[in-house]
Amino acid sequence: MLVNATAMLQSAAKGHYGIGAFNTNNLEWASSILDAAEELQSPLIIQCTAGAAKWQGGFKVCADIVRDLYEAKNITIPVALHLDHGSYEDCFKAMDAGFTSIMYDGSHEETFQINLDRTAELVKIAHNKGISIEAEVGGIGGVEDGVASSGELADPEECKAIADLGVDFLACGIGNIHGLYPENWAGLSFERLGEIKALTGDLPLVLHGGTGIPLDQIQKAISLGISKINVNTDLQVAFAKATREYIESGADQKGKGYDPRKLLKPGRDAIITRTKELIEDFGSTGKAWA
User: Which end of the chain is more exposed for a tag (fewer CB within 10 A), N or C?
Assistant: First the structure.
């Protein structure tokens, strides 16, 4: 049975380790991520954007894939299915489809008050359904499903205002961006992270754009209160690299190498390997029931 993400992230916050929130794009992705986390006995958040859900056939198809794999593989670790960067409307669709956790990204709304009001409403609805909820303050740089920002540093007072609404975890802009990081990236602002943590107390904080941040910065962020690290591009790059190597080797033209099961296996294996590396880096190995 899938769970919401509240308890696992509260444990991570108390234990000073991070939990990977890995984006799924299809059955291969979900299967590989589950296999990696189960092997290392790590709590797991599988998340999906509205765009990736649409690619799979909708939120319900995505939820059914994850739930069916969870049962068929006899997964023993706690797994949450989370909506990543959901609009106000997406949140209702995901909850209706069986997601156990949602993110309302109101950081791009016209005013902070709209973000505040809609977050307050969604907190009540989600909690009545036993669903955990993440909110966001301060835009995250880069582009993800049309949500773009210059990556400003979140206002600590705005973070406190959102935290006081009862959200279960909070994404805050601290200089991080989505996608691949440019060479001139300034790095994370640990000063701003400290200011936000001072005002939000024990609330687990979320680091979006985990791909490409130097490991020492990620681990320092975890030590300062980051409990959830979002990973998407990293696994896409690993999958693409392995698939390219398979094709460029000519393996797809030998025998039945064109069989999609053979064609997709190197990428699938690469996702498992990379996910395990990241789980180790974040410190959640063996923490399934912490």
Answer: N
